[in-house]
Amino acid sequence: MTFPLLTEFAAPLAGNPALPLLHNELRNKTKKSFIGLVTEVQKHLTTDLSPLLDLLKNLNPTRHFSPEFYCYYFTLLTHMVQQNNETAFNLCNTLNLLPTSDNFYHDKFVITSNTSSIMMELYKNNLGDDKKYKREEITTVSSFDYQEVSSYIQRSFNIIANNTHLSEEINEIISAINIFDGGGKASNASSVGFFGLIMMRYHRFNSQAEQLLYFFDSIIHEAAHNYLNLLITFDPMIINSKEFFFSPARNTNRPMKGIFHGHFVVFRLIMAYRLLEKFFAEYFPTQKLDAYDFNRPLADLPMTFYPRLEAYQYKFKQGESIIQQSAQLTEFGREFFNNMSSIIHHD
């Protein structure tokens, strides 16, 4: 059943004043479920898990929970669903030893470069099998690169701050960016499994303008995924989420859920580029996208402002057609999708 407050989120633009309330409800919901999972594990263990249960029960949902909190929860949930009982038991035993709940809160935004965190392990494990990909290609950025990346991220946030609605939304749902070096399949990522965190690869470009656009674009992109993950927690939006169709964002077949995610991401990128164009116009000449670039996946588009905006607009139309023809949406999902189309076509 759809959470009643969600009806206020059918408008897909940033700036919904009810976002903190919905975010708070996510924390309440996840906390309650986490307690239920640990209570179930306790039935099968001789170890007393009351320290962990007390810690969870005393969590304050008015504070922002950390990506680690969500990662521990979803990791435990996955192990229990897959009946990996021993692994679930070991995780609970480890969490039972935590002296405080400090690790479960994130009250301030941080930029980190931790390549050994539980979220990074989850990220690596989800990259899939690829003969060209080597896990050791994911490395920690140098202290010099960390300072440089932090500077670009701060400049990106300064640009985003010129649109109050977008800035407030991102500040509400994004609590950390984890920077890493890497090659192969290593790329930017977000997940409900580490909600509030953006995994961001330090992809190097030839000019400062391209570098700034990369971080700005990446923040908008991954924040959009986080926002949609929050909504989908309360309404699935896509009924045939696992059926495969062509994805304009990836230029390959993907489950409909991924296509819908990509469509919303492109929508948010178009809006951010339009709203904040003046901050990039002086660095990038007005130019058209080369014909052969239209069908490139998002990850392979040239890092230039106007061709990217043109590509996003083209891919939005592609995604719109595919979703109209093939997606089975909930009532809320249909309204949300239709509102995206109305906004783009009105502008």
Q: Could you walk me through the main structural features you see in this protein, from its secondary elements to its overall organization?
A:
The chain is mainly alpha-helical and 347 residues long. The chain folds into 3 domains: 17-104; 108-206, no CATH class; 235-347, no CATH class. 52% of the residues lie in helices and 6% in strands. The chain is built from 12 helices and 5 strands. The chain has a 3-stranded parallel sheet with strand order 1-2-3. A two-stranded antiparallel ribbon has the order 4-5. Helix 3 (67-81) runs antiparallel to helix 4. The longest helix is centred in the middle third of the chain and has 25 residues, at 208-232. The radius of gyration is 21 Å and the shape is globular. The relative contact order is 0.11.
The radius of gyration is 21 Å
The amount of beta strand, in percent, is: 5-15%
Principal-axis shape equals: globular
Q: State the domain count.
A: 3
Helix content: 40-55%
- The largest beta-sheet arranges its strands as 1-2-3
Q: Overall mean pLDDT score?
A: 93
Class derived from helix and strand content: mainly alpha
State the helix count: 12
Order of helices and strands: HHHHEHHHEEHEEHHHH
The total count of strands amounts to 5
- Distance, first to last CA: 33 Å
Largest sheet at a glance?
3 strands, parallel
Low-confidence stretches: 129-136
